[in-house]
Amino acid sequence: MTTMIKDVEHFTIFRDKEHCVNQIATRLLKNGDIIAVFNEERFPFHHDSGQTVMTRSSDGGKTWSEPKVVLPWSETTGNWDCGICETSDGTLIINYTLTGFFKRGQRNLQPSWSSGPITKEWGDWSWAFKTQGWLGTYVIKSKDGGETWGQPIPVNVRPLKHGGCRCGVWELPDGGLLMGLYGRIRGYGEEGEGESTRSALMRSDDGGDNWEYYSTLGYDPASIIDYEEPGLVRLKDGRLVCFMRTHVNPTSDAKNMVMIVSEDDGFSWTPPKWTNIWGFPPELIALQDGRYLMVYGYRKPPYGTRGIISEDGVTWDVKNEFIIREGGLPDYSDKAKPVSSLGGSVGEQGYDAGRIDPNHPGIYQHIGYPSVVQNHDGSIACSYHEWTDDPKPLQYLRCTRFRV
């Protein structure tokens, strides 16, 4: 039976006049506020080299505070893929990925293959696409509700070379903290070196000061399937359920999400099981009525953000899928943009200035990345990003409130 949602309301969280803002992560605090962190890009397109910004809502997602920069970018570093949580003692923890955002150290002898970004504001950063590198995974902690933050704490992700974040940390009943990451053992980058991406859990038993590798969530030794951006939820019976985004190599084509289950607090997992649900990346929460909700982005026509309800947390079926927000792509852009966040030349179909083809949208397909909470009054707030319809489209943040 198809799930019906009601009392649907859409609100704008934040839009910047010059930069893209995206990949929001939210959690419900014990005091009833929704706290959120997101990426502010240093460019008017997605590049994974920006800064982490925080905002909060005290009315269930209708209005939001003036955003505050928590982790600023510098000339040589940026941060992205932030998540947030509140532990049982009231500590706030932000986890994030640090990237080296390098200009050329040597004077180039030829023009760059990349055609951008070259702007009056930032000059020629066209080489940054080729020299950008992941520097590590970190956490910062606040003991005063986010007013002040401690020094960055490095996360030991070894034997991974790097660990990309998506969701915030999850706290177990015994006080242990789990952080879901995706990365690779041989390669430092997100792609290449003939190795597919795996997902894994890091664990901390001292409140987030020290971390180590705890378990593998999904890995394909044939290096065909990528398992990325895990989303976890704890069931009433204590089991953990995790969904992961997937891609297949060498095409990088997105496939359906997979599901795994743990009966020992995340130390071991069932093999990945393919579901009939297409979309990514996932986030899951337990609802007050005992059911479970998963939300995810939908990056093909008609685009948008979707959700699914499960009665028991282990049985999920696309027939229960519902639309939270449809669309999110602009119709037109009067300025060309790079092919992707990894750079590349413009001028290919769908990436140049002009009418945007939803079947070949290039970087404009980057919508969604939803995060969801259930407020104390039972209403649900799902936050995500989409593109404006301005002549120069920018990613911005929205929130949809509804009930199920």
Description:
This protein has one domain (6-153, 218-403): Neuraminidase, CATH 2.120.10.10. 1% of the residues lie in helices and 44% in strands. The chain contains 1 helix and 28 strands. The longest helix is centred in the N-terminal third of the chain and has 4 residues, at 128-131. 47% of the residues are buried. It comes from Mesorhizobium liriopis.
Radius of gyration based on Cα positions? 20 Å
N-to-C order of helices and strands: EEEEEEEEEHEEEEEEEEEEEEEEEEEEE
Inertia-based shape: globular
Level-1 CATH class name: Mainly Beta
Proportion in β-strands: 35-45%
What is the CATH architecture annotation?
6 Propeller
State the total count of DSSP E strands. Answer: 28
Biggest pleated sheet: 4 strands, antiparallel
Based on secondary structure, the structural category is: mainly beta
Pfam family, one: BNR_2
GO molecular function: hydrolase activity
Protein name: Glycoside hydrolase
Keywords: Hydrolase
Task: Write the topology of this structure.
Blueprint (H helix, E strand, L loop, with lengths): L5 E9 L6 E8 L5 E7 L10 E7 L10 E4 L5 E10 L5 E9 L17 E2 L3 E2 L3 H4 L1 E10 L10 E2 L15 E2 L5 E7 L14 E7 L7 E7 L6 E10 L5 E9 L4 E10 L10 E2 L7 E5 L5 E7 L5 E7 L10 E6 L5 E2 L20 E2 L12 E7 L5 E8 L7 E9 L1
Antiparallel strand pairs: 1-28, 2-3, 3-4, 4-5, 6-7, 7-10, 8-9, 10-11, 12-13, 13-14, 14-15, 16-17, 17-18, 18-19, 20-21, 21-22, 22-23, 24-25, 26-27, 27-28
Organism: Mesorhizobium liriopis
Protein name: Glycoside hydrolase
GO molecular function, one term: hydrolase activity
